[in-house]
Amino acid sequence: MSTKTTEPAEVRNTKQRRAVTAELHRLEDFISTQDLHRRLQDQGESVSLATTYRILQSMAELGQVDVLRTAEGEAIYRRCEAQHHHHHLVCRSCGATVELEAPDIEAWAENTARRHGYTDVDHTVEISGICEQCTARLEAEDTPVSEDRGATLPGGGSPEAAQRPSSSPSTSRPGRGSSGPTR
């Protein structure tokens, strides 16, 4: 979200803008322009893809939507819960997002810019990681259960396997990668 305080030009409240805004209010998660356009078309709204892009860009500039970038660089949008400057903590696995207040980051950004002679400073901070629910799910997927006894040891091995000599330790972890939020 932008920290700029310049007054935006008046925005026309067109039928297309109302349709985009209404659809964003029905959604909980981030959505790409293409997916939003598809949903609007499915509802019989006559909004072109180019108009959908322009409306979302305008809404982003006005702070009415949050914008994130996927790992592929695609912009995804969500109605903005907070009406003031804030940052995001985003799960790279499921796209869950937490809006953050960060006064220390605000002060750091202003001081850093001032030290270098910059004014009219704008910044965006997005912290990404794996949320608690996805971490638990991934850890559960990585913990095999012994078929005959149902027991596991720390690190995922069975008691039987712990008694057998190992030829070489395995350090790879399957399936941990993600391309980021795709909603």
Automatic annotation (TrEMBL):
The keyword Metal-binding applies. Its cofactor is Zn(2+); Mn(2+); Fe(2+). Fe cation binds at H85, E106, H123. Residues 164-183 have a biased composition (Low complexity). GO terms for molecular function: DNA-binding transcription factor activity; transcription cis-regulatory region binding; zinc ion binding. GO terms for biological process: negative regulation of DNA-templated transcription; regulation of secondary metabolite biosynthetic process. Residues 139-183 are annotated as: Disordered. InterPro entries: FUR (IPR002481), Fur_C (IPR043135), WH-like_DNA-bd_sf (IPR036388), WH_DNA-bd_sf (IPR036390). GO terms for cellular component: cytosol. Keywords: Cytoplasm, DNA-binding, Iron, Metal-binding, Repressor, Transcription, Transcription regulation, Zinc. Its main location: cytoplasm. Homodimer. This is Transcriptional repressor. It comes from Kocuria rhizophila. The lineage of its organism: Bacteria, Bacillati, Actinomycetota, Actinomycetes, Micrococcales.
